[in-house]
């Protein structure tokens, strides 16, 4: 097991370097340092001197990848890519273009993101798995048929419809909760309940269909027929055998999602004015703040790799036959 973890961690290093390289290249294909200077200075007629001064203050006056004017290792180290990307492996994300410390912003914004994502994840998992088990129990019946129709209809509707419709109905017409904003402490619940409910409802369609497919595949296997032949009730077969043996494909989708919870929801946080990591990323993209975008992509890559490792490890908990060498 330890050797397996070490190998996976070593594999992660070139992956993270590649992600950094691709992110860097894509960003500077769209925006040159001169374009970033004009965007940040916010002036229609910016002088070349002001642009050069802005670039020099922030380290964007160097070559992107290779510095032919330097000698030795400085050919690669005295570049924008090395100066802006290499230090992230030491958890040094630097400062945003507005001067704020990125690491401090991430820590402060992680709480609101988790306050939305965790309840949405837990409630959504309970609701969708229970609904899928119900449809599987009443398979080939009218309840199963109309349940599938409902799921297809729900998954065919854009997530924006649920957000805008929920804000209009619950907040504007019924005036039950604020339409947007965020408050700390015990008052936070009234700002979080609507985003959480919308997140759960919008995910019912696709997740329920996915779990129902898994359960129907398991319920046709030989061990299920053997359990029925021993006299077990259908409910016992579903919950004691089918659900347990379907845990591996369920964990594949569930555990990978857990690290992404820290990154926040881009649409939900933006529409509800939640000061989380999702809205932080959207604001950075709109402001062309490469430092923040680079940091968020790097953190997302690290969390995704951690999620894949956790997925593999979780298999050993639900299936003792799986061992890693």
Question: What would you note in describing this structure?
Answer:
It is a single chain. This protein has 325 residues and is mostly helical. It folds into two domains: 2-90, no CATH class; 102-318, MetI-like fold. It contains 16 helices and no strands. The protein has helices at 2-30, 33-41, 48-58, 74-77, 80-85, 102-137, 142-155, 159-173, 189-202, 204-219, 222-229, 234-245, 247-260, 266-272, 277-286, 290-318. The N and C termini lie close together (6 Å). The mean pLDDT is 86.
Q: Specify the CATH class of the largest domain.
A: Mainly Alpha
CATH architecture of the largest domain: Orthogonal Bundle
Q: Report strand %.
A: under 5%
Radius of gyration: 25 Å
What series of H and E elements makes up the topology? HHHHHHHHHHHHHHHH
First-to-last CA distance:
6 Å
Predict the CATH topology of the largest domain.
MetI-like fold
